[in-house]
Amino acid sequence: MSIYSSFKQKNDIERLVFLINSEAKETINIMEICGGHTHSIMKYGLNALIKDKINFLHGPGCPVCVMPIKRIDAAICIAGLPDVILVAYGDIMRVPGTNSSLIKERAKGKDIRMIYSPLDIIKIVGDKSNKNKKIVFFAIGFETTTPMTAALLEEVITKKIENVFFYINHVLVPPPINAILDSNDSLIDGFICPGHVSVITGSGIYSDIVQKYKKSAVISGFEPYDILSGTLLIVRQINDNNPSVEIAYKRAVKEEGNKKAQDLVNKYFRVRDEFEWRGFGNIAKSGLRLRDEFKYFDAEYVFADELKALELNEDFKENTGCKCGEILRGKLKPVDCPLFGKVCIPENPVGACMVSSEGACSAYYKYRNF
């Protein structure tokens, strides 16, 4: 019996598998940019069903995974300052820095709190015992989560809240993809692009993949049917020698995206000159920062002296055995890392790719169908 017997789309999924296996003329290398796609591929064994024709490579679309040690150490530094409450999403708290992590610092007594939504911070502000505290939001994520941070800032400004600050680590999808394709050894034939990002941005942000690099780009949802549909579209584009941006997730994604969310982000954010990525180094125009008119909410401005001192005195070192960087660039798979499943496990993660719920190493370890 098929593992998809519980799905209403069982017959459609089996048909897609058949079509991919029969139509792909040779093995095709497809990078799924988002870690959510990686987890679905591994959970449902899609890689095994089409392994002779499709080689899935795992990309840099996990926001927790791409945060370099330097940014983690900076957050730890801010959390250690007097009267600071540092607020962060759950996964980032377990990512190792040079000598510690946010979760370890919380165990030592630092006031570090996990939230599920940026607007949870308004509740923290409302607690009278926090009146004289500096509440710092460690904001991370791609284009999907940036509007929520912008919405929080708008709420803070509207309510004239003066003790909430933003340590901005929002990044953009296209620049690291361009960096991968600019390398001389990229073997990628096409990309499965993240549906949730595209809901916000629309499809235009992937135009370089097609126009500059002549690769296929298909926007997909996260269900097995969505991923296989997107894969088949890439196979057919390659067969027709007609790379293009296609939307295989039309129930959610429009070509123009969400204009209201885009306007909200543009109101409060500007593109940085460069941003450092784990496994990539600095990538030009790849991250966001608050606009200058909102700099008094910007933790990098407010705590500039402390962060400069950290840079002067800290030696930011990655674990040399961890291959998270190579995995994020599609050069290796988790099983190629010498630490995977041995020293590096979810209970004792050495690299961010094992920590994050969207990390490739986490997916491989959890489902173990490789």
Name a few traits of the molecule.
globular; alpha/beta; 370 residues; disordered N terminus
Account of the 3D structure:
- The structure is a single chain.
- This protein is an alpha/beta fold and 370 residues long.
- It has a domain at 69-171 and 287-313: HypD, alpha/beta domain 2 (Rossmann fold, 3-Layer(aba) Sandwich).
- The chain contains 17 helices and 13 strands.
- The protein has helices spanning 10-23, 35-43, 46-49, 69-79, 102-107, 120-126, 146-158, 174-182, 195-201, 207-211, 224-239, 259-268, 299-302, 304-313, 324-328, 352-355, 360-367, and strands spanning 28-34, 54-61, 84-89, 112-115, 134-141, 164-170, 190-194, 216-220, 245-247, 269-271, 274-277, 281-284, 288-290.
- The chain has a 5-stranded parallel sheet with strand order 2-1-7-8-9. The protein has a 4-stranded parallel sheet with strand order 4-3-5-6, sandwiched between helices.
- Strand 8, helix 11 and strand 9 (245-247) form a beta-alpha-beta unit.
- The radius of gyration is 21 Å and the shape is globular.
- Mean pLDDT is 93; it is low at 1-5.
